[in-house]
Amino acid sequence: MNFIAKYFPNAVTMKDEFVQATGETLYMTFITAVVAGIIGMAIGVGLIVTQPGGILENRVVYNILDKIVNLCRSIPFVILLAVIAPLTRLIVGTAIGTTAAIVPLVIGSAPFYARQIQNALSEVDRGVIEAAESVGSGPIAIIFRVYLREGLPDIIRSSVLTLISLIDLTAMAGAIGGGGLGNLAINVGYSRFENDVTIAAMLIILVLVFAIQLIGDLWARKVDHTA
Amino acid sequence: MNFIAKYFPNAVTMKDEFVQATGETLYMTFITAVVAGIIGMAIGVGLIVTQPGGILENRVVYNILDKIVNLCRSIPFVILLAVIAPLTRLIVGTAIGTTAAIVPLVIGSAPFYARQIQNALSEVDRGVIEAAESVGSGPIAIIFRVYLREGLPDIIRSSVLTLISLIDLTAMAGAIGGGGLGNLAINVGYSRFENDVTIAAMLIILVLVFAIQLIGDLWARKVDHTA
Amino acid sequence: MTNEAIIQLKDIDVTFHNKGQTVTAVKNVSLTVERGDIYGVVGYSGAGKSTLVRVINRLQRPTAGTVEVNGQDILGLKPKELRVARTKIGMIFQHFNLMASRTIADNVGYPLKGGDLSHEERQEKVAHLLDLVGLTEKAADYPAQLSGGQKQRVAIARALANDPEILISDEATSALDPKTTSSILELLKRLNRELGLTVVLITHEMEAVKEICNKVAVMDAGEIIERGDLVTIFSRPEKPLTQDFINTATQVDQAREKIFKQARTLGLDDHHRLVQLQYVGASTDAPLITELYKRYGVVSNILYGNVEILQDTPLGNLIVVMTGEPDKLSAAWQYCQDAGISVTQLQPTDPEVA
Amino acid sequence: MTNEAIIQLKDIDVTFHNKGQTVTAVKNVSLTVERGDIYGVVGYSGAGKSTLVRVINRLQRPTAGTVEVNGQDILGLKPKELRVARTKIGMIFQHFNLMASRTIADNVGYPLKGGDLSHEERQEKVAHLLDLVGLTEKAADYPAQLSGGQKQRVAIARALANDPEILISDEATSALDPKTTSSILELLKRLNRELGLTVVLITHEMEAVKEICNKVAVMDAGEIIERGDLVTIFSRPEKPLTQDFINTATQVDQAREKIFKQARTLGLDDHHRLVQLQYVGASTDAPLITELYKRYGVVSNILYGNVEILQDTPLGNLIVVMTGEPDKLSAAWQYCQDAGISVTQLQPTDPEVA
Amino acid sequence: GKSSSSKTVKVGIMGSDEKIWKPIQKRLKKQGVNIKLVTFTDYNQPNAALTNHEVDINSFQHTYFMQQWNKAHKTNIVSIGKTMRAPLRLYSKKVKSVADIKKGDQITIPNDSTNEGRALHLLQSAGLIKINNKLALPTPKNITQNKLNLKITPVDAAQTPRSLSDAAGAVINNEFAAEAKLPNSETIYKEKLNKASIPYINIIATNKADKNNKTYKKIVKAYQSEQTKKLIKKYYNGLSVPAW
Ligand SMILES: Nc1ncnc2c1ncn2[C@@H]1O[C@H](COP(=O)(O)OP(=O)(O)OP(=O)(O)O)[C@@H](O)[C@H]1O
Ligand SMILES: Nc1ncnc2c1ncn2[C@@H]1O[C@H](COP(=O)(O)OP(=O)(O)OP(=O)(O)O)[C@@H](O)[C@H]1O
Ligand SMILES: [Mg+2]
Ligand SMILES: [Mg+2]
């Protein structure tokens, strides 16, 4: 305890803030992960099945999805926050606060995740898809029973990557009062030159990142039966 | 021209700024891409070859690389800017300006790219590696002639993803006077309520993003001979 | 066996376009498979066999031609109809195409997913199929843990899971040892006999063709150059390619070569003739060699022989040295020909060093 | 052919551990291959053949045992030494393992990269190799555009690129038609003869074994249960598994079954006997059937016959109906046995419905 | 909020002002006024939140910024009380006075629009540059005369103190100067407290409709207290001064 008090003079006085910020980060990350995960997965799968040579080849849908993803990825996050404020208000009733931060976080990370999923699924062996087609599997069955299943190890690895990027992104949520550890590190620690707060916040983030990576690696290894 | 003057009243007066910002963005993106590309590639390959079951299996090196990547990825970019200022000064002589921004951009994107490379290469068929081993290929040959070659389509797709994320990241370079289109959009357009500037800057970013995606897609398709 | 056509390919062309190059893998092929047939398709590597059969269930859309399966115009089917049609066509892929993420049991059970069977029924069926291919022990393993032949057997079991009416088998036994091959062929024959399963069997193993096919088509460079019922093809192959295949399979070519090498030691002269005798069917019932001695005092020494029974018809292929008086030899020769046996005198030239 | 051991495996065990399960793929196997051998390895699917040969170039580290290749202790080699050793051991993989990103020519040329050859020399060599396997036209294509057999031929060409001293071939002809198989085997035989290439040939095609191997090992459940030179194994197989393989390959089992089905129509009685005659080597030189008639008036009708020449030694396997006076039949029987021919009387029981 | 009689008032502030506002919050609670502090990091957000009634009042801007905002967004945000006057200063670790600044030197300024403009005005009044005075929010592009050929680089406000090791001088916002505990000795020029600096007095603002809200006035009053004065003195060490 003495050690902590010595090296983290400011941080020790801010126990509540740390608890709250950790909670906020977890909350934003979790909800965003779920929502952006579903949306990104849907778009990623959509891109894969409608791409030229895909099982539901459709130039129009593919191009629309592709363009939307690129469009969303072109907008710097800070601007995204502002641009979609009306949408945020519509969805969560307010454009500020932790919950409101989730909307731009979703829009900021879903397209990224969609690309990751697309990349992951484009590695699924064409021959296996054909095998499924040959027994009469329809598009839905092929998506759920082949693509998402055969691509799972890679999907997990990509999800880990996205999730860690997402934690990074929540640091920006401070701009609209979202709070969180990143905000604590930047706007309390960094802006106020309280380095120990920055370091303490980063250590907690580090723990989250390591935990996610570890769980992801173990899980991916568990479901990877290719060797 | 009239149309432009009408809808972009502020932007038209800022031709020079736009040219300069575009140049800065391209400069930062390009140099960072090259440097972070090399570093990220090296680390990603390092992770792949030293991982359990890899061709140069080495628990210690793998764990060190893995931890470094996680560590770097845990630091919010704004803080990274500040934290590595001494390093930046050492390398480019100053910690502010466009060139100085490249150091944190590299450190911010290289670990991300390393993970992407790791994911991409983990899809390379074990059997093909064995075939190379069986003709006496050493680790270097296997890395360059098998991993990087067989994984190329996926590496390209991952590089596109990273490059676009990098453009996003350059928007933050404004914090240390790096300039660029993102900075123009945020600190000139958005902060000064000149929406047309924001939109114009974003349109240029959009063009970059689309160009990168398009070239990447075409290139990946060209080198993908699996179907 | 009814004479109803279950698969009818008409004027099929398949052309691949790859970066400027075009490869015509299948050229103007028409093929009719009748219900209950076990139709063998043989041909050189790269002849277009795999491409052709992929047309049957529209995994490969032909560039030209029509495909009728079970009375349905396959190329005109809507996606949903096609899916239903496909459930009746089992397919064993040359490269297995197993799902790496599923256990062996799950791979085999895959076609049953979303079907009418209860979980228990499905499990039971899978267990039965695994038993048929001898992989019960490996049920919980993953494809990466299997040997080549084991993977192939998984693919076979999977193709049979849906109780298909048609089975398309692309080199389904190419990675299997003779004993396992034999048991798989037995299985197919039984399904054919008991359930009327129609089989299109691509193979390069002529033994497999001989063992279970009733019809054979021979492909070369994208075209079917010869076709017909098994015995006809094997006893009277018309095209050199077909002859080559049959000879290579029965090793008559190799035998001839070896005999030629030793030709000098055989001491061939007026009193000795090296001949190849080929006969089909009833002719074998007559004890030919004894007869030749009885009638003409001609002694025949079998240097190479292959007498086998195809579809209940015996087929003989012998290389013998006949020894006797020159005129008797000629008489014996005549006798053979009259008995419907094809006789060829072999002239060993100086053995070429291959 | 010198008698120098080029590959020496001693007491090899290979055990796989997968999530709790352990599979012992190879059990206590010792095997010596001499320089210039073409050593066939046969066995059931899953017997451990692939695993065993992967031990030779240490792609698979054995759980126990020692490996000596070319006088080097392979398991003790440093990485660099191992690499050098591996350049002398060509390997054809059961699953081809081609690089999807390289053209056919580049796949074949891969082993030459980083070697001493100039670009032109390399191209020339690749062109020559492609010509050997008949794929000159496909040089610029990618593996995905090839048929199964074409892929396999690329793998063969690649394995030969380094001019290896040892070639490990894991089912290298399993996807090839008889004619192409034959030409590949010819090629191996020639390399063996002219350059002293040592070949370890895993195959399930007994014809391939017969055609080029001088020695054979039979594996079952991880162990080598029988081994020896080709003629011995084929003429006097000891283990039931070996017999099975040989019989299935020569189709004698199937023939016997078919004959039994028709047994009634043969009208077997005192004067007719259904016998199987098996003989090796010189015994065939005597015109057996004629002799039986000459001496005992016994007429032999060949129902099934397989007479072939292995490594210059004729091998005969006939099923005949002998017709004659009962006492003459017995005398004929004795005559055969005295001549070193194994005679088995076949007793057609009621044909079982398989 | 807990109290059923009075609703909770949401106050939008910048994170760095929390330490001033926390004690006020405490005191107000005793008076039966519940306030909730909503912290922002981006100057664009608190006013937007105000217009959308996501906060009721905010305290982060000076009058000048408010005016610009109202103009650009056609809003009616008004001041209901002054807070601090936070003069900008030019700091340096490398030179002792403005006169020592050499040709081609680099000077960093905050990159948020109002502080950026204000910093340029400061540099003008220090005689280092001339800018186009007609512009509301000038940028380095609007410099009309730059005899010393100074390199003026806008950076993140929090970066300005950190840039002192690289640049010859840095224009630093008060709050950051205070947080970075920059010694007074490094100040080489200070914004004059004259009429020109009046627009830069910080304020508490609300929507025009709420201009006369009693509770809000109570809050303003709570801010403008002796206790706050002490805090400002404590935290800003004389860099910022109470402006009421
Ligand atoms: N996707 C493709 N693109 C280009 N050419 C192709 C493609 N698929 C097959 N081919 C070519 O078409 C021809 C026929 O191939 P196919 O696979 O049908 O042969 P096959 O008769 O099955 O041969 P094998 O017995 O070796 O399997 C080959 O020459 C092959 O190279
Ligand atoms: N990685 C692995 N993990 C677990 N079991 C394995 C693994 N590789 C092989 N085996 C098992 O080891 C046994 C021997 O396999 P191997 O591939 O050597 O057989 P094989 O004789 O080559 O068969 P085939 O003729 O079918 O190719 C099989 O039962 C197989 O399931
Ligand atoms: Mg094929
Ligand atoms: Mg094997």
Automatic annotation (TrEMBL), chains C, D:
Keywords linked to the UniProt accession: Amino-acid transport, ATP-binding, Cell membrane, Membrane, Nucleotide-binding, Translocase, Transport
Gene3D superfamilies tied to this protein: 3.30.70.260, P-loop containing nucleotide triphosphate hydrolases
GO molecular function: ATP binding
PROSITE patterns referenced in this protein's UniProt entry, alphabetically: ABC_TRANSPORTER_1, ABC_TRANSPORTER_2
CDD domains registered for this protein in UniProt: ABC_MetN_methionine_transporter
PANTHER family listed in its UniProt record: AMINO ACID IMPORT ATP-BINDING PROTEIN (PTHR43166), METHIONINE IMPORT ATP-BINDING PROTEIN METN (PTHR43166:SF30)
Protein name as annotated: Methionine ABC transporter ATP-binding protein
